[in-house]
Design brief:
The protein is mainly alpha-helical and 220 residues long. It contains 9 helices and 2 strands, in the order H-H-H-E-E-H-H-H-H-H-H. It has helices at residues 10-19, 26-35, 46-58, 83-98, 106-112, 119-150, 157-182, 188-197, 202-207, and strands spanning 62-68, 76-81. A two-stranded antiparallel ribbon has the order 1-2. The protein is elongated and about 75 Å long. It starts with 9 loop residues before the first helix and ends in a 13-residue tail after the last helix.
């Protein structure tokens, strides 16, 4: 089980990772993240970045290491990671990689509520989603092509992962839409009947009286 942490904003972890490389001021942190294409995996807002750095300093994960002066520009405060911050960073990142989090993507929620829409309408909506995802996939592959020429693969694996996840979702949607079109998905007759008559099928009512184990922890 993932640990409960003082800070949970992924941007805080990202900032600590950068400061583990060298001391930086917040503007440099933002620029470095953009140069490395991290805006595709971490929500970066320049205003909130200062708040994140302040919170990290409040919890003694980062500290002021100096002041940078460049010509007539205003002074910029440099921050570096502390030993406590380094320990938190390593533990947090290890936790995120090793322990699957209980996440609730909104698409999963929508799929769980699918029967309230007619099958034909669901097929059309999924077609719209398929087209949008195909555009996203092509865009990410384009980004990977550009970043891959400028950065080692180790710096772009999250974008690679995102592209694979979108393509996996596309494959599932195409397969599910085919089942809808062929009327081979189990329960589709009751589904259609529900929208034709407005009455809940008896089979669905019977399901509500059964105890169906859906918790993976209880099936072990």
């Amino acid at each position: 089980m993932a640990k409960r942490r003082k800070l949970s904003n992924p941007l805080a972890l990202t900032v600590m990772v950068l400061l583990a490389e060298r001391s930086m001021h917040p503007y440099e942190i933002a620029q470095t993240l953009r140069r490395r294409g991290k805006q595709h995996s971490v929500k970066i807002n320049f205003g909130s970045l200062y708040t994140v750095v302040q919170n990290l300093e409040k919890h003694a994960y980062v500290e002021v290491t100096g002041v940078q002066r460049q010509g007539n520009r205003p002074e910029r405060t440099l921050y570096g990671i502390t030993e406590a911050g380094r320990a938190e960073m390593l533990d947090w990142l290890s936790d995120l990689i090793a322990v699957p989090a209980a996440e609730f993507p909104v698409f999963d929620t929508a799929l769980s509520l699918l029967p309230v829409l007619p099958p034909d309408e669901v097929a059309e909506l999924l077609s719209d989603r398929e087209q949008a995802l195909a555009v996203q996939s092509a865009a990410l592959r384009g980004v990977l092509g550009q970043l891959g020429d400028a950065l080692p693969r180790v710096f772009v694996v999250e974008t690679e992962y995102q592209a694979h996840m979108i393509e996996a979702q596309l494959a599932w949607i195409r397969g599910f839409r085919k089942e809808l079109g062929d009327a081979t998905i189990s329960g589709i007759e009751e589904w259609k009947s529900f929208h034709e008559t407005g009455e809940v099928p008896q089979d669905w009512q019977d399901l509500d009286e059964q105890e169906i184990v859906l918790d993976p922890e209880r099936t072990r």
